[in-house]
Amino acid sequence: MKDIDKPEALSRRGFLKTTAAAPAAATLAVGVGISSDAAWAQAGKNLTPHEMATLVKMARDIFPHDHLADKYYIVACASYEALAADAGKKAMLTGGVARLDEDAAARFQAANYLAVNWEADRVALLHGISHTPFFAKLRGDLVVSLYNQKELWPKFGYEGASADKGGYITRGFDDIDWLPTV
Amino acid sequence: MAKFDLNDDTVVCIIGSGAGGGTLGNELAQRGVKVVILEAGGRHETQDFINDEWESFAQLAWTDMRTTSGSWRVAKDFPNLPAWIVKAVGGSTTHWAGASLRFQEHEFKTRTTYGEVAGANLHDWPITLAELEPYYTKAEQKMGVTGTNGIPRLPGNNNYKVLAAGAKKMGYKDFHSGNMAINSQPRDGRGACQQIGFCFQGCKSGAKWSTLVSEIPNGEATGNMEVRPRSMVLKVEHDAGGKVTGVVYLDEKGVTQRQKARVVAVAGNSIESPRLLLNSASSMFPDGLANSSGQVGRNYMRHMTASVYATFEKPVHMYRGTTMAGIVRDEARHDTKRGFVGGYEMETLSLGLPFMAAFLEPGGWGRSFSSAMEDYPNMAGMWLVGEDMARETNRVTLDPVAKDKNGLAVASVHFDDHPNDIAMRKHGFAQGAGIYDAVGATRVINTTPYPSTHNMGTNRMSEKPRDGVVNKFGQTHDVKNLFVSDGSQFTSGAACNPTLTIVSLAIRQAENMAGMMQRREI
């Protein structure tokens, strides 16, 4: 069977320009500058480095893909710094992180959410807040802000647009070769 | 291209340019009738379509505010998106997958065949399969449906091959690559399918029939038809005698206009059509236009629907090629031994990665969800589409609170699954899993219904005026020069995709409407 085409090498600049295309239903800030692969470094005047790092960790725990580097989760959360310019949104985000940190201390005697080592334990904490608007907002945004990053599509075996390549008529639309013969 | 005056009261004014409105417009124009089509959405031609799910959604989908209620899960997961349909010239024919199936004979006679079903509002259609057959033939010819008129079927893609191999092992007999309104060879000035995928996002090769690439340009070429995009109709008006006189709409600049008309045909899909009739209430028609029966908005149907996705040890790449690449029809029969009335089709379906994330398990997260996403390349998928029961309480009403930007009440869609729908879905999940297990599935995932793509029944056809909104020609029982021309006419929904029937009814309606006009009956 025809494997998927190798993605064209993307420059860092190209990577940033093309990420986070968002639907009308979930308007996310586009074109947020990413200056480092470290989550804490994406914080600005509205969110602290700790808060940003926690959001990024939450993103990975909500949609855990071990074959994805942190940068994809950072891009997926990048819009929250700008979103937090709104006082109400900021209260939801910072309050949500604070609640998770308190729960981590109470349940696992950890310094905070980030200090809880096992994913299963962090997920237990997320279940504790899964009914909150904070969690719903994060999960709902991530469905788009993570999975709609074109750069990660090849990592999921998805080839994206095909009309510009002439479709799949000569590129493997019917090349399955492992089905049992009946 | 024709241009008609706002005060020209000899035109037929059609609201909506999809399968119903676009076809009716062309058929009337071919007969020399003057037609103005008002379309709420913009005009995006074949080359404008986008091979990207979210970008295309922003381009084509009807995302104006709607509200929902009821026990269906869509109301929880997508409370303001009850339906995934289109606001653009060509309507939802730009988005549809192309499956073109005829109703079965008994599906026009559900009350007689199924008997009294508690909690359902079944009626026989006022027409039979035999009466509609000549129009089905014309529609298949017009749309170039594969497997009819000597047109070869499309080649099956990988997703179909998995379905077919599993179906064969299960002992199913009636499966093939479908009756599709997609060119398997060049036809009607359009090329053959390039197996692009993205059928839901507008066909970028023009191989798929839509009113955008067929009926509308053909109608415009007669010089008898004008299409006005970005023209949102607010109200249908009538005179003291109770005849409609025209419509009030906002033009592309947002300016209120009044188009006079000899006849008005409503074809805005089964949510907007009843909304418009209800919003057109007057002192003479206090419950809404054509609503003396109280049935406007009621009996909303959206098909049973659900999806089965399965993952395998090796790659499938289901997204390569046509979205609906094949069908198993064995379960479409009516056979109450299965524990429900009516039947269902199993049709391949694929979503791209972004929409798979949104629809595979709305609200889902964690390893259970993300591991399924990682199996995307090894996934095959099918859609279950079956007859759902018309219920008076499943209905489109005017939201008492929410208003659109023009101050008009938005549509509110209430839906509860009937026990028959639930029993049928359960059966479909089991049979779908059986197909994939038969060819080595490592995991089978039952996916909840998406926002409705098949919307039907909210202005149903009936023999007697007290039972429905329109007669067997789609003419409203109450107002003789007011017609309904979309899937909202459906008395019942049948097991199969509705478009071929909508087009066939529109061809038949055009023939009869032109005759009535010639005889000065309207």
Give a short overview.
The complex is a heterodimer of chains A (182) and B (522). With 182 residues, chain A is mainly alpha-helical.
Layout of helices and strands, plus pairs?
The complex is a heterodimer of chains A (182) and B (522).
Chain A (H helix, E strand, L loop, with lengths): L11 H7 L30 H14 L7 H8 L1 H5 L3 H22 L10 H11 L3 H13 L37
Helix pairs in contact in A: 2-3, 5-6
Chain B lengths: L11 E4 L3 H12 L4 E4 L14 H8 L6 E3 L4 H4 L32 H5 L14 H15 L14 H13 L4 E2 L38 H7 L3 E4 L3 E7 L5 E7 L5 E5 L2 E4 L2 H11 L26 E6 L15 E2 L15 E5 L4 H7 L7 H8 L4 E8 L8 E9 L5 E6 L4 H19 L5 E5 L34 E3 L14 H20 L4
Parallel strand pairs in B: 1-2, 1-9, 2-5, 3-15, 9-17
Antiparallel strand pairs in B: 4-11, 6-7, 7-8, 10-13, 10-16, 11-12, 12-13, 14-15
Helix pairs in contact in B: 1-7, 1-12, 5-12, 6-11
Overview of this structure, please?
The complex is a heterodimer of chains A (182) and B (522). Chain A has 182 residues and is mostly helical. Helix content of chain A is 44%, strand content 0%. Chain A has seven helices and no strands. Mean pLDDT of chain A is 86; it is low at 9-32. With 522 residues, chain B is of the alpha/beta class. Chain B has helices spanning 19-30, 53-60, 74-77, 110-114, 129-143, 158-170, 215-221, 269-279, 353-359, 367-374, 419-437, 499-518; strands at 12-15, 35-38, 67-69, 175-176, 225-228, 232-238, 244-250, 256-260, 263-266, 306-311, 327-328, 344-348, 379-386, 395-403, 409-414, 443-447, 482-484. Chain B has a six-stranded antiparallel β-sheet, with helices on one face. In chain B, strands 5-2-1-9-17 form a five-stranded parallel β-sheet. In chain B, helix 6 packs across helix 11 (419-437). Chain B starts with 11 loop residues before the first strand and ends with a helix.
